Amino acid sequence: MSAPTIGIDLGTSGVKALLLDGDRVLGAAQAPLASSRPQPGWSEQDPEHWWAATCTCLDALAAEQPKALRAVRAIGLAGQMHGATLLDAAGNTLRPCMLWDDGRSAPQCAEMEAAVPSLRAIAGNAAMPGFTAPKLMWVRRHEPSVFARIHRVLLPKAWLRWRLCGEAVEEMSDASGTLWLDVAQRRWSLALLAACGLDEAQMPRLVEGTARAGELRPEWVARWGFEHAPVLAGGAGDNAAGAVALGAVRPGDAFLSLGTSGVLWVTTAQHSAAPERGVHAFCHALPQTWHQMGVLLSAAASLAWWSAVANTDESRLLGELQAQSQAPAPCWFVPYLSGERTPHNDAGVRAAFLHLGAGTTRPQMTQAVLEGVAHAFRDARDALAAAGTQVAAADLIGGGTRSDLWCDVLANMLNIALRRVDGATHGPALGAARLAQAALTGEPRFPRAAAGRVFEPRATLVQRYDEAHARWLSLYGLARQVPPASSESITQDRIA
Asked: Nearest Cα to 310, choosing from 373, 362, 368?
């Protein structure tokens, strides 16, 4: 019988720690995080807040499950991707971490693609402001004194691993989101690093997500009362960890994540890139496995934004609607609150309501928000199809899936069956704990998540959404043409 493991998920809005014994969840703890937006298009966090939140979670597990925690033998890490955490030679953080939704480096994306014409072939992705490499080019140009002192560049969860065990190690799925990884070969690209003024010595050592990647430092073993120092697994980026939790580890396995951002994921047996459509082609956290993703920057975040603007709880807004879609809303919403990745690769475009009239109601606008996100997911589905990947069915996860209506809209918009996963709330933390089990035992075991309600498309509504989407396709161009009311020049450069 394997020993208990811990999965730690370093998310954007909080840290979660999960205590797992086999398939039994023994305990979980969470601590919130906040982001800073000092200028339009900027998004940052202080890494020390990650550490404080992690300590809060592990302290809580130690208090609630002291016996089980003492027996833990492995810890897995999952985390938000793309963040640029910069350390000097003494290990001091040089500036706040620039996050995945930070759009300031759009001009540097064009510079990087010009400097390395083969970038897309090597990295498998187009240069986008959310990725790590353009952020470093921005620092080199705008904060040269900081850049000159960089000894190490770590992604958020690699920084957390460094605090836990003192080793600079990263795994393949998270490294894929830097634009420095040769994704097909699963190694750092010296050419892509050189384009940013960096070298391999400034990068963490690479391992697979199921590999052992350090051992907890003695002071933390003592603090949390472990009998033996747990090993740390390579772990995974947040989406790959979520895939492991779902058991989406075989070619063709697919899921749709309706979280703050949105993801349409398909596991693949080989590296297959389609950067011209904004499709992400990354390594999976498992050896010799890859995946494709269509990514939306504002999915459930769109409803959260509308809830704040309407000064009404999301549950009340959703309660004003029917439980099942009957027809498309009479108005439109484009969900580009922070720009968009798939398929537009545009950090500058912004969200909008369109075709509002004197008789437009709040419920109609709420429905338009749900449908706008669904239209954007359809764009992502079509981008994957253009890359040769057909999605026949998918699991459904994320906080937005609590709405039956939203799930129904998505099934009809995409014309595929969507299976809502029961008990998927643990997500990446559960995936991280299972990767820890694999690192500990050498025997990967990733069972498929329990089945929940299946949302089937209905032919009549599918046809109406088909017709609506044909008109939707013109809305991006309209949104792109509208100039900002005030200067946001750093986010207005589109990457071709």
From this structure: 362
Q: Helices 362-386 and 459-472 meet at what angle, rounded to 10?
A: 80
CA separation for the pair 447, 480 (Å, rounded):
43
Q: Is 231 helix (H, G, I), strand (E, B) or coil?
A: strand
Query: Are 173 and 207 contacting, i.e. CB atoms less than 8 angstroms apart?
Result: no
Sequence-ordered alpha helix ranges (H) in 87-228 = 106-115, 119-123, 132-142, 144-148, 156-165, 172-175, 190-195, 218-224
Domains of the chain by range and CATH?
Answer: 5-241 (3.30.420.40), 248-427+449-491 (3.30.420.40)
Give the three-state DSSP class for 15. Answer: strand
One-letter amino acid of 222: A
- Report which DSSP code applies to 283: E
- Number of residues written out for the chain: 496
In DSSP notation, 55-86 reads HHHHHHHHHH-HHHHHT--EEEEEE-SS-BEE
Cα–Cα distance measured from residue 392 to residue 398, given in angstroms and rounded to the nearest whole number: 20
Which own/partner pairs from 388-394 qualify as long-range (CB within 8 Å, at least 24 positions apart)? 388/272, 388/274, 389/266, 389/268, 389/272, 389/292, 391/254, 391/264, 391/266, 391/416, 392/252, 392/254, 392/416, 393/254, 393/417, 393/418, 393/419, 394/254, 394/255, 394/256, 394/264, 394/418, 394/419
Question: Token pair for residue 477?
Answer: 């161009």
Could you read off the pLDDT tens digit of each residue along the chain, which spans 496 residues?
Answer: 579 999 999 999 999 999 999 989 999 999 999 999 999 889 999 999 999 999 999 999 999 999 999 999 999 999 999 999 999 999 999 999 999 989 899 999 999 999 999 999 999 999 988 899 999 999 999 999 999 999 999 999 999 999 999 999 999 999 999 999 999 999 999 999 999 999 999 999 999 999 999 999 999 999 999 999 999 999 999 989 999 999 999 999 999 999 888 999 999 988 888 888 888 899 999 999 999 999 999 999 999 999 999 999 999 999 999 888 889 999 999 999 989 989 998 888 999 999 999 999 999 999 999 999 999 999 999 999 988 898 999 999 888 999 999 999 999 999 999 999 976 668 899 999 999 999 999 988 898 888 789 999 999 999 999 999 999 999 999 999 988 876 544 343 333 3
Catalytic positions are 238
Which two tokens mark 483? 């100039």
| Structure token digits, residue 294 | 């269509």
How far apart CA 85 and CA 259 sit, in angstroms, is: 24
Rounded to two decimals, the pTM is 0.86
Query: Whole-angstrom Cα distance, residue 496 to residue 494?
Result: 6
Cβ contact 369:302 at 8 Å: yes
